[in-house]
Design goal:
heterodimer, A: mainly alpha, MetI-like fold, 72% helix, 0% strand, B: alpha+beta, D-Maltodextrin-Binding Protein, domain 2, six-stranded mixed sheet, 19 helices, 11 strands, globular, disordered N terminus
Chain lengths: 307, 443
């Protein structure tokens, strides 16, 4: 047997089989993920300008990073992105939980409702952006017209301009589009929930709030953290909706990391600097992912699940 | 003979002439490129489309096919072209261009001198060709020009009550504004938010930088001095910013104006809820069409106002076509851009109100409008003709213009919203502009 193995070329040997099988996947990852990442990391140390391909070899060391650390606009956008992420995720979780609990109670037409609930996810973010841009338009928008017709407001509320309302309007659009992700994952959690602890709690005389607080919610938390991990990555790179609704303005009031990075990289052609910004921004995504995974493990441990 | 009778006569005599012109123009030989597919990237939008409907004719005449790879607005097209430069995928031949964008692209486009015959070029307006030239190279062929003048709702100015109240308040007669100060007075006077607004302006991107820039010039200021030091944070600059801010504070413009771009201002005026609208001629026929516009038949037009520096605002540019260096059939590409900017094609755009870049098309378009009794379009063309020849100026034709603009407009917005004073906003923008100019080696 050993003799036969010696005669075989190395890639046909049994010990090498896992690598051969994994090779296409590894190659794809290297080409599609690793190489572009390394390339963009390299460009973040150059003065690479999109319209001057030869500037790719103009090595500037840490100059781009030094600029970022003294760039107040960048850090404001960074902070705003964290705030945006926190508010949007919490709202999506609360609404998603409410919807999931309500749908779980329905005994007739549940499938239809579940399908309808998924509708907002089917739209492209650009369309959602245009839809809410129209709703929140101060002059011809549906919302202001409705408020005026109902006598609730006699002026044109500048939804997309006001310091607080502009960010709030974008959060509404984001929450509208993505709450169903939370709802569907939490609903899956509810479906998978064993009935025994619930019945035992009822027998022991727990009221509905106690059942929810001590049994249902802890059981759902791992599902919630999975949804939050996915959504935090999504929201941290929010671009389309913001770009369509406000373009990061006015006066940078709704500027998030990726609207800023896109402007620097494409409009200003400073791709080297934009990539440096992107690398600093990735730290944000890594931090949130790490945080949610720790929470996920803690929640599973609490429920007696595997580590 | 009555005026109507004269016009009828003029129309009757002009028609055969025009038809003869049409036949002659179509005699141009655009060459034979049988079986060739020309790949192009064009600017898209409702006002640009009528010209593209003509592409079929060029295909019939030459035997070539046109593959339109992109049809986007200029900002999106600009991003796409930059990506093509970076990726080395300039595998197309003809692209829409604009003097504001052209200097960024370096030498990706060919010099059209020598490619387009001299006699053809001589039919274009000199200023339009000069603005299309970068570093001595004619990198684009102008399709139509762009400058803004002031549309107003005529009935507001005819109303005796308005006249009396305005005179009482401001001490001078109510007439379409001649100066930017009067423009402001009248916009505030007519406003009754949120039902009716005095005016509106484009509030973001290069659009508001351009408006600020033309007002800065009209106020006697300059963007840069002769050594490329930013100088727009001058007194003239502060006055210009204050104009936008005063209108915003007085609620003479819609509250959401800082999110507005060209479509929003045009459609706003057509909705009949705005008194004055500084805009390009491309909207003219739309504004006067009862199917689209509530102000049709009630529109007046005057030249853009004069600033306190004694100069009229006249931010101008052109929409153009360029041919790439990497094009595999430059002859076909040259034939195509010649066709799209020919006399006939410019007439098609002129009928919609787009400003031609060929001198003769101006004359013929005015004669045609006159012949058809379309007094409004005659006024439009005469007004824009005067402003194109006397008031037009471009932004600095340097690659850094868009980048400088991106530093200026968020600060303009901040000043308008009261987050910082106009002086602070301009000082900050000038500092950032200086950094850009230093990086680019100008300083």
């Amino acid at each position: 047997m050993a003799k036969i193995e010696k005669r075989l070329p190395f890639w046909q040997r049994e010990s090498f089989t896992p690598f051969v099988l994994l090779f296409p996947a590894i190659l794809t990852l290297v080409l599609v993920v690793l190489l572009p990442l390394l390339f963009s990391l390299y460009t973040s140390f150059t003065g690479y300008r999109l319209i001057r391909p030869d500037s790719l070899y103009n090595f500037v060391g840490f100059r781009n990073y030094e600029r970022i650390f003294t760039d107040w606009d960048f850090w404001v956008a960074f902070g705003r992105t964290v705030l945006f992420l926190t508010i949007a995720l919490n709202l999506e979780f609360l609404f998603g939980l409410g919807i999931a609990l309500l749908i779980n109670r329905i005994t007739w037409g549940q499938r239809t409702l579940r399908t309808i609930m998924m509708f907002p996810m089917m739209f492209s973010p650009i369309l959602v952006g245009y839809q809410f841009k129209f709703i929140f338009n101060d002059n011809i928008g549906v919302l202001n017209n409705a408020l005026q017709s109902l006598g609730l407001s006699d002026g044109a509320i500048p939804w997309l301009v006001d310091k607080h309302l502009a960010m709030g309007s974008i959060i509404v659009a984001e929450v509208w589009m993505s709450t169903s992700i939370f709802a569907i994952l939490l609903l899956a959690g509810l479906f998978a929930m064993p009935r025994d602890p619930l019945e035992a709690a009822k027998v022991d005389g727990c009221n509905p709030w106690q059942v929810f607080r001590h049994i249902t919610l802890p059981f759902l938390m791992p599902f919630a953290f999975i949804a939050m991990t996915i959504r935090s990555l999504d929201v941290a790179r929010a671009y389309d909706i913001v770009d369509v609704m406000t373009g990061g303005g006015p006066a940078g009031r709704t500027e998030l990391l990726w609207t800023l990075i896109a402007r620097v990289g494409y409009d200003n052609s400073r791709m080297g600097q934009a990539n440096a910004m992107a690398y600093v921004s990735i730290l944000l995504s890594i931090a949130f992912t790490y945080y949610f995974f720790r929470k996920l493990i803690a929640a599973r441990r609490y429920m007696g699940g595997a580590n | 003979m009555t005026k109507a009778g004269l016009k009828l006569l003029a129309a009757a005599t002009a028609l055969p002439l025009l038809m003869a012109g049409a036949v002659n123009a179509e005699d141009i030989d655009y060459g034979n490129f049988d079986g060739y597919t020309l790949r192009v990237k064009l600017i898209g939008g409702a006002q640009y489309e009528p010209l593209y409907a003509e592409i079929e004719k060029w295909e019939e005449m030459t035997g070539a096919k046109v593959d339109v790879l992109s049809r986007k607005n200029h900002f999106e097209l600009d991003r796409e072209i930059k990506q093509d430069i970076a990726a080395g995928t300039l595998d197309w031949c003809v692209g829409s261009n604009h003097p504001s964008f052209a200097p960024q692209y370096g030498t990706i486009y060919i010099d059209l001198n020598g490619v387009i015959p001299k006699e053809t070029l001589s039919e274009f307006q000199e200023l339009a060709l000069a603005n299309s030239t970068v570093d001595g190279r004619l990198v684009q062929l102008p399709r139509h020009s762009d400058i803004s003048n002031l549309y107003y709702k005529k009935s507001l100015y005819a109303d005796q009550g308005n006249k009396d109240r305005f005179k009482e308040k401001h001490g001078y007669d109510l007439a379409p504004p001649e100066t930017w100060e009067q423009f402001k007075d009248q916009a505030i006077f007519f406003a009754n938010a949120p039902e009716f607004f005095g005016t509106q302006y484009v509030g973001k991107d290069e659009a508001i930088t351009g408006r600020f820039y033309e007002l800065l010039i009209a106020e006697g200021g300059q963007l840069f001095d002769e050594n490329w030091n930013p100088t727009f944070n001058s007194e003239a600059g502060v006055r210009a910013v204050q104009w936008f801010k005063d209108l915003y504070d007085a609620k003479a413009v819609p509250a959401g104006v800082l999110n507005y771009l060209w479509d929003d201002t045009g459609l706003g005026f057509a909705s009949g809820t705005v008194a004055l609208n500084l805009d390009w001629a491309g909207w003219a026929s739309f504004f006067n069409d009862p199917a689209n516009s509530k102000v049709a038949g009630d529109i007046g037009l005057v030249r853009a106002p004069v600033g306190s520096g004694g100069k009229r605002s006249g931010w101008s540019g052109s929409h153009t076509f360029s041919i790439t260096e990497t094009c595999d059939n430059k002859e076909a590409a040259a034939s195509f851009v010649s066709f799209l900017t020919s006399h006939e094609r410019q007439m098609i755009e002129a009928r919609k109100g787009l400003l031609p870049t060929r001198g003769k098309v101006w004359e013929e378009a005015i004669a045609e409008f006159d012949g058809a009794g379309n007094d409004f379009m005659v006024t439009v063309f005469e007004t824009y003709s005067q402003s194109m020849s006397e008031d037009a100026f471009t932004p600095p034709l340097i690659p850094q213009w868009i980048e400088v603009s991106n530093e200026v407009w968020p600060r303009l917005q901040a000043a308008i919203l009261g987050e910082m004073s106009p002086q602070e906003a301009l000082d900050e923008a000038a500092e950032s502009a200086r950094e850009i100019m230093e990086d680019a080696g100008y300083l």
